Protein 1
Amino acid sequence: ESEVPSFTASKVSQYSCQRKTTLNNFNKKFTDAFEIMAENYEFKENEMFCLEFLRAASVLKCLPFPVVRMKDIQGLPCMGDQVRDIVEEIIEEGESSRAKDVLNDERYKSFKQFTSVFGVGVKTSEKWYRMGLRTLEEVKAEKTLKLSKMQRVGLLYYEDLVSCVSKAEADAVGLIVKKTVRTFLPDALITLTGGFRRGKKIGHDIDFLITNPGPREDDDLLHKGLLLYCDIIESTFVKDQLPSRKVDAMDNFQKCFAILKLYQPRVDNRSYNASKEFDMAEVKDWKAIRVDLVICPFEQYAYALLGWTGSRQFGRDLRRFANHEKKMILDNHALYDKRKRIFLKAGSEEEIFAHLGLDYVEPWERNA
Ligand code: DCP
Ligand code: MG
């Protein structure tokens, strides 16, 4: 009777690390609405409702067919009442009035603008909103505001940074990063991680994981030169420290949230037509690009790679699965078996999945 006979809703795991989620999303109109709801709850610091909608979005992203009636979501995990109401309305009306209300909500609109600035999160947005600020124009005009250095560059390069990064730009930056790193560490392993490793064609930044086989001499690596801005976070890793149990584990690696100046000669038609003479000074021949450089010890490379490849939801579910199903603690550095009281070493992502008793999931199937 069903159009996809091989599909059984009750067999869909509540953990995205037991599902395969490619970028081919048949249910975008539902998942977009859920993600708007989740973001609004994030802005309200309501983590429970936020996660509820992110989990629901993630489940619908793995379905091999578009949902067209309520029966299609019957038996699926993570379909709470709030979620079902929205699915029902989208099926009947084509859109969700609740998601639409959020998009028109003044607080949501302000937070959306504020958090689009590099260095501005929910806390800063809350502060600005309470001060009566509503738009970025008002923020820029408010001269009494004390902005961090990160926020100042965030505003300075705002237009470049909100325009997404393409795969071609990621590859171009990859060549620069490799060349630069290898002048210091000839044997270094430099891997493109984040969304691009999962096969995405665009992203908000470019994530690289850097490690050096052999003795540790990578401390001076994060130096300036080609960087427009670089906020270096020193490594705070303590040997034999237990993995973190937080939902979104921040790691202790030395890392650098940088803005890179990517030169890309381009012809600006407007200045060409206006002056006939080609004035190079008028043409901006570079683009500011957000780059995350993460340096990790060689022994932790597999864990760091798994963590930094994401998606965020995939990582959350891996940690939740480890904790609740296996009595293990996973983070970007290590996996700890609480029953055996030992750290489980891994030289590859495949080995980490095996330690957890999970089938291997390829990077492009982790778009949960
Ligand atoms: N990550 C992490 N610890 C952090 C920050 C990120 O483990 N402190 C992980 C989760 C993300 C991945 O790294 O999936 C990359 O982070 P991004 O925010 O860059 O997310 P994506 O690359 O997946 O998406 P985008 O295209 O928006 O960059
Ligand atoms: Mg990224």
Protein 2
Amino acid sequence: RTLFNDIDLLPPDSLFNIKQRLSQDSRPVKVDLGIGAYRDDNGKPWVLPSVREAEKVIQKDPSYNHEYLGIGGLTSLTQGAAKVLLGDDNKALKEKRVVSVQSLSGTGALHMAARFFTKFCGDKLVYLSDPTWANHNAIFETMGLKTATYPYWDPATKSLNLKGYLSAIESAPKGSIFVLHACAHNPTGLDPNQEQWASILDAIIKKDHIVLFDSAYQGFASGDLDRDAFAVRLGLEKLAEVSPIFICQSFAKNVGMYGERAGCFHIVLPRQDQSVSIENVKDAINSQLAKITRSELSNPPAYGAKIVSTVLNDEQLTEQWHKDMVTMSSRIIKMRHQLRDNLVKLHTPGNWDHIVGQTGMFSYTGLSPEMVKRLEKEHAVYLVGSGRASIAGLNSGNVEYVAKAINEVVN
Ligand code: PMP
């Protein structure tokens, strides 16, 4: 009876806790800028038209059922997903250097990477950006991996601390693991430009570091899959002769599959010399990944995978999906502009241009924890203590209200 009496009470997850506080708030006007999930202009979750269509196709199929998928997941998903990420005529795909398996969305892919690292790269340090998505620390540390940080955000200039970033790459122990946000960096919404990406990747190669790209927002950030895959594809090109690349791919945001947990984990192998059979290496890796999935999930979830696979493998649905991503990204960009313009109109102290300069779901507003607290307490505007605001929570009905609230707490 005393067995569990000493268990520590952990603080609630800060992000999901926001949702709870918000649901208990009885004020008539509330604004949720917490969790990163797309909302339409009425503040409602949005089922993508391409997804609605895909669901009809799936359910009309005479072979429709709820059977188990194979351990590696749905091949039509993993292959389609690799093409989306790497590009149709990617060299690594043509040279058959890519291992792809289905994962429990992006988080599951990161966890799989972490398990793989513990087994095959156990003593390596995992470098995360400062700041990063809070779950990155939890995922790698829970697996017993040691994490370190590389400078990223310069609060004074609200821009990339490239110098600090490069010097962290330089001083990290040779062969460390660097987790890079493929696009739409969470929480800052700040991405390196193309030139900066080139110097980051060159510095990484120089020190034989290993790259893990976390791709959670491809197509969601700019509305253009190719544009948002720039860093991943540059990395593939630069590292093709040097080392494997790990990629964690989520369909939560760009297909709106949040709760369906559709994602993939890819390992792109470098070109091998003639003495090594790449097929043997791939088989061995696949067998190890299968062992991980079998013991943890048995097999990955089917329904979301079928939806995404249907979207990716039907020309018309793919076309509709591309339009859907433009719908989401352009509404978010519009909200960034309206928030900035409203703050300027109110003569809110400070410069707010970073809100429109940042990309993806979030804006790192620069609001202090005290200001965030006041926004919640006095205006029922909820965001994360770090000042990260999910721009998707803004709409034409509440953006002015939010600007006035920000203006009040800043003044
Ligand atoms: N990485 C980053 C940087 C993210 O922001 C997210 C979603 N918040 C994920 C990975 C994975 O999310 P999911 O497990 O829902 O695909």
